[in-house]
Amino acid sequence: MTTGQLNAKNIAVVAKKLSQADPSLARVLDLHGAPPLWKRPATFATFVRIILEQQVSLASAKSTFDKLRIACEGKITPQSVSELGDDGLRAVGFSRQKSRYAIALAEEVVERRFKIASLRHRGDDEVRGLITQRLGLGNWSADVYLMMALCRPDVLPVGDLGLVKGMMQLDGGDYDSSEKVLRRAEAWRPYRSVACRMVWQLYLGNR
User: Which long-range contacts (CB under 8 A, 24 or more apart) does 133-137 make?
Assistant: First the structure.
């Protein structure tokens, strides 16, 4: 298989390969099976959802995102978000800061300073660099987009709380620094995105 993009078929193959190399992941595979792809569309709406997910629960972010979709009459686009403006976004549950981020991103897309469709043709580092130049989008946001929207196989969202807690549950290790997370994940290359999904499986299953 190629390592260019994960899909529903090859993710199971990779999970089995990882389980053969890492006994801790083998236990996750035995318990939960192959991880979901959790794919998201490579669109502006996905970036808005990622903004909403920053530092809050996924359930809370989804609730606000669903309200936004209704306010945008089913289509979350740069134009519809710009038309809602700060008052409209705040009315559906955006914080002042996240409203600012979403409106700024909408303006960049409308003015073609940020071309989302072109990201799929660029390498991981270039995509990360372009995303993190945007207001309110840091490395975690870039990693989630790379993993979930572009389905890149070797991404590790180091600052993700669910990943850190899941890794602690995985093998009882101490992962209180980015360096420790990166060292533990080194053996998972070039499929860290799949290993991360497996760790999330464990974490979600234990909640």
Answer: 134/104, 134/105, 134/108, 135/100, 135/101, 135/104, 135/105, 136/51, 136/54, 136/97, 136/98, 136/100, 136/101, 136/104, 136/105, 137/47, 137/50, 137/51, 137/101, 137/105
